[in-house]
Amino acid sequence: MFETIQNLALGFSVALSPSVLMYAFVGCLVGTLVGVLPGVGPLAGISLLLPATFGLNATNAIVMLAGIYYGAMYGGSTTSILMRIPGEAASVMTCIDGYAMARKGRAGAALAIAAVGSYVAGTISVVALMFLAPPLATFALRFGPPEYFALLLLGLLVLAYMSGGSMAKALAMAAFGLLLGMVGIDQMTGYFRFAYGIVELGDGIGVVPVAVGLFGVAEILISAGQKTPQEIVQPKFRELLPSKTEWRESVMPTARGTVLGFLIGVIPGSAHIISSFVSYALERKLSKTPEQFGKGAVAGVAGPESANNAATSGAFVPMLALGVPSGPIPAVMLAAMMVHGISPGPMLINQQPQLFWGFIASMYIGNVMLLILNLPMVGLFVNVLRVPYPLLYPAILAFSVLGVYAVNGSVVDVWIMFAMGAVGFVLRKLQFETAPVVLGVVLAPMIEMALRQSLAMSDGRYAIFFSRPIATTLLAVGAVLVILALRPLVMRTLDWRARLALVEKGENL
Amino acid sequence: MTIDRVGGGALVLLALFTLWESRKLPLGTLQNPGPSYVPVILSLLLLGFGLVVIAMGRGSDGVASVGWGEWRHAIAILGCLAFMALALERLGYRITIFAALAFLLGVVERRGVVTTTVFAVAFSGLSFYLFATVLRVQLPRSPWGF
């Protein structure tokens, strides 16, 4: 405990330096804009701004990119409440009661409850991250290739299980992503695989062009032809203070959302989306007035908004402690860290304590900045929504080209983004999840290397995966998930994943 | 025809293609996997999942029910993106981005000449200044040096 506080003091000495403070502020500001603008999610936002961090030192770069991530969670609630349009996917649930509150003249109160809930959840979950990541990293030092193989396989299975809708479709997307990750030089034999004479593919397909294509370009292709909604509720500053009753009604949902969001965040999957869905369902179940949900229930705003912010910090736990991304956004963050010469994993905390603890401390500061940014400046952010989409999307497209090109200075990456944009457009139309593709691309080289190293260790005996307790346990958990996913097929019932798919399609809105 | 059956069919075709392409590389053995070992396993998994998606796809939405109304915009944007990929290193960042924005705003979105020109010039110039000059990101220049 005392050691943690000492480390945190070190972190604050880094995070309170003027340059780190400035980049945390820039990250939070850009993140809020990314969250406010429909069609630019945190994944595309982080990917596009990665080149802007190339000239920075590693700490400043990571602090800024993390600011974009959790800033987007704050910003996403603004459009949900004022326009009934989720700025990013995790704010889907906030649309329901947030917008209903706005229609009843309580837009300011809904925004304040969302912002305060996000602040509380963000801060408490950073405390949990601070205490959980170091012991987990120490535990992970016992991991060898078989344990990593089992962990990575479990990660993909959990992601597929946690995705809304069909697990077979999600697993197919994971396999597709893993196959994309096979492109390039085989690390153990030096063979070129699926490169077709393109030298630039020797290093493999990068996660940034895949992520920007699937999430940025595909979204533009789907949204560009649609009309921009005009109706925006504009709250006045004096309306931002919730009533005593509204404060009281938000306390417990915020607390429950924080715990739930953090726990779901640690598990692989699109954590911030799932956590807000589960939190909403939980609050409706626990409410004495469930009939108020959908008509402006405070708990329907406080719970999901707290949960999606807590999940953001939770998602950093496996990434920082194990070096294993739990979803597409941590995967891009991981790639960003590698660009800056940092290898996340068990050794990071001991080898680069200033970076790790500086990052943790910057998250505390970032949450305060976001609270200050989001309440008084809400009117300013709302005005951004008045920029017509026909002017906005060409700019986003140009930024996409700039961002993707700048990572490696290669036009091949722009072509990959082009192809992934087209593929993502069709996949979205055919109702396939694209998050497992991104994770597959990142995990493919790790999972293949872990498999082949394990076999080299055991003279080719696959029993090695079942003779080591940690690996066996992880594989057993994976098997249980597959059985759970098959259960609704046998029982012919709707499980929570099927219900989430319905909500994501808008059938409950 | 349902969307799951179309999607599943596409996955099966992709899996067969990657299986076919994997034959060019040594497979190795179960005990000592070669460079095409994991791709073959993944292709077989993709094939299996594709078949499951097809088998379970009877109840999904019909292809006709999926709105494709934005296809004109989508084709124009993809065409513009292809142009940017082709022109970026030949014409340089600023000319390429100016031309792409002018096309998207002026032709696709039918904005006025003044709006289109001001936006395209300002965006291409300012973004180059911010990223290439201030942040020192390497961006391609035109053969004429700007």
Write down the overall mean pLDDT of chain A: 82
Distance between the termini of chain B: 53 Å
Overall shape of chain B: flat
Q: What oligomerization state is this entry in?
A: heterodimer
Straight-line N-to-C gap of chain A: 46 Å
**What are the secondary-structure elements of chain A, in order, as H or E?**
HHHHHHHHEEHHHHHHHHHHHHHH
Radius of gyration of chain B: 23 Å
Secondary structure: number of strands of chain A: 2
Topology of helices and strands:
The complex is a heterodimer of chains A (509) and B (146).
Chain A: H1 2-15, H2 18-36, H3 42-49, H4 58-83, H5 92-103, H6 107-140, H7 145-162, H8 167-180, E1 184-185, E2 192-193, H9 207-223, H10 244-266, H11 271-286, H12 299-322, H13 328-339, H14 348-351, H15 353-374, H16 378-384, H17 389-408, H18 411-429, H19 435-457, H20 464-467, H21 469-491, H22 496-504
Antiparallel strand pairs in A: 1-2
Helix pairs in contact in A: 1-15, 2-4, 2-15, 3-4, 3-9, 3-13, 3-17, 4-5, 4-6, 4-12, 4-13, 4-15, 5-6, 5-12, 6-10, 6-12, 6-15, 7-8, 7-19, 7-21, 8-19, 9-17, 9-18, 9-19, 10-11, 10-12, 11-12, 13-19, 17-18
Chain B: H1 3-22, H2 37-55, H3 71-91, H4 93-108, H5 113-134
Helix pairs in contact in B: 1-2, 3-4, 4-5
